[in-house]
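stuck on this:

***
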Amino acid sequence: MRFTLQGGDAIVRLSYMEHSHTEAIRWCLSTGNETLVGGTLQAVAMLRLVLDQETVTNVLDFVESRSPHDGIYFWPAVAAAGWTGQRVHDFLTACVSGPRSDVVEAATNSLAGNYGTYRPL
């Protein structure tokens, strides 16, 4: 599991250097592997990547198809500080009312336009 999380992070970070992070993010999402996607979303948040609306939709579709009790919500809630649109606002608002205190904190920060300070692993 740890290897896959780090794998998703590495894929996005390496693709970011080549300016093709959108393709890498979409590929990771297409695998359906939650651990790989978790690492991908962690990298998106830590790099503060501003995604295009289609990629944001892809990310939120993936995340929102899971239970709000799932930890997969955390990193998109952090990353959304730099995203725009009604869908993002609705996602963050739902996260603020969610069951996980870590996601509530991240979403509250993002709604205020702040990334917050988080230490992965």
